[in-house]
Each structure stands twice: as structure tokens, then as C-alpha cells.
Amino acid sequence: MNSEENIIYRYDDNISFRQCSLSNKIHSLTNGDCTNFFIQGENYKQYYYCNQYGIHLHCTKHPAIELEQHRPNFGEIFLKCPKCNIDIPINDFDDLLKSCLKVLNISKFKDAKLIRLDDWYVPEVKEKIEIESDYWIKAEVKTDRDKDTMVVLYIGNKNSKEKAQFFIKPEKLQLSNDYKDLDPAKILSKIEVTLRDRKIKQEYDY
Q1: How far apart, in whole angstroms, are the C-alpha atoms of residue 5 and residue 19?
Q2: What does the radius of gyration of the chain's CA atoms come to, in whole angstroms?
Q3: pLDDT in tens, 121-135
Q4: Strand partners, 84
Q5: CB 31 within 8 A of CB 38
Q6: Which of 91, 104, 77 is nearest to 16 (CA)?
Q7: Which one, of 96, 98, 76, 73, lies nearest residue 87 by Cα?
Q8: What b/e sequence results for 93-105 when a residue is b if at least 16 CB atoms lie within 10 Å of its CB, and e otherwise?
């Protein structure tokens, strides 16, 4: 592991933490920088696994030093930095490790795209159709939250980044387009969809 990968995350004034080299590995033949691991034999090989979800606690004041856990008289749980020589009380070691994982997720998901359940569709099929023309067409088949089919058609000109977008819902007998995208009239004169008991047609005069 190179120095660019050695990252210590601050949890509070006393506790910081890191992810060990076993945190994201399903199988590892060495313990790497993990200091609390178990070994399990699989398929005649010895694999190493972290006992702490891949999380190791360090001193915030001395980040290079890993905190030690101890229970005087089997009572309250403490963490201790040998250099600071002070006891840091904690309620539950396992809960603390899970809290560190939650802190990691804050950084991971801070720029995540928020999707309303009403807008959630499950992709099933994607296909880009090559045609001998200045235009291109791409189709996606998805399933909406009602388990109904939705075909999304993207149509555009190869010389432009703009595109028109159509939504075809066969079970709901609907044809619509996304008004935020390119006006279909700029690239189409007509679109016609044949469904089980009807044809839906839109004609454009631009």
C-alpha cells in the first residue's frame, strides 16, 4: 500500500480510524495492515479476514498509533493511546465500528443523485440502432414501479449533442416525450406506435 492510500479519518477529538487492506477484499492470502484478523481455510488455502469490519481505531492526536481496547475489572470499555496514556470510555466497541462505517458513507454518498420512488425504473434492455443516416436512435426497455413496461426512445442528429426523448408505455397505452429535451419537430415529421388495440400517432409541422 503506498502513502497515497494511507488515509486516517477523524471521528472525534480522541478517536480517528482507518480502513485496513482487508476491508474490501473477499479473499486475501495475507493480513496486510490488518491487526485483528482471523484465518479460515478454503479450498486448501488459508485466507485472512478482518474481525472489525475492516475498521481500525487510531488516536486523533497521534494518528500513527492504533488505540488499544481494555476492560478494567470486566467493567466499562476503554480505548487507550500508549502515548497519551489516557482512557477513552466507549459504550460499545461494535457500535463504534459501525458508526465509523456510517461516517465513511457520508463521504461516499455526499454527491449521490437523489431519485424519487415515483421516478424509479428498472432497466432491462438497451440497444443503439445503427442507421445509414445523419441521425441515430437508441432504445431502452425498462419496468416502472407498477411493473409495467416502458420503452424509452432517444433520437438525435450525429452532428449535435441534443436529442429528443420519447416514452412508450404499452400497458398504459401512452406515448409522450420529454419537453426538457430537443423539440421532436426539429428532427421528425411523425412518430407512430402500434399497440394491441390502437395506433398512437404524433405528427409535427416545423
Answers
A1: 10
A2: 28
A3: 555 566 666 667 788
A4: none
A5: no
A6: 104
A7: 76
A8: eeebbeebeeeee
CA dist 200 to 96, 168, 175, Å? 59, 10, 7
Measured between alpha carbons, how far is 12 from 103 in angstroms, rounded to an integer?
A: 11
Pairing type for strands 163-169 and 174-177 reads antiparallel
pLDDT in tens, 168-194: 888 888 888 888 888 888 888 888 888
Residue found under cell 471521528: 11
pTM for the structure as a whole = 0.53
Q: Measuring CA to CA, how many Å separate 52 from each of 41, 55, 94, 179?
A: 19, 5, 8, 51
Write out the three cell numbers for 67.
488505540
Residue 181 near residue 164, CB atoms below 8 Å? yes
Q: Which residues contact 116 (CB under 8 A, 6 or more apart)?
A: none
| Beta strands across the sheet bearing 122-129 | 122-129, 135-143, 149-157, 163-169, 174-177
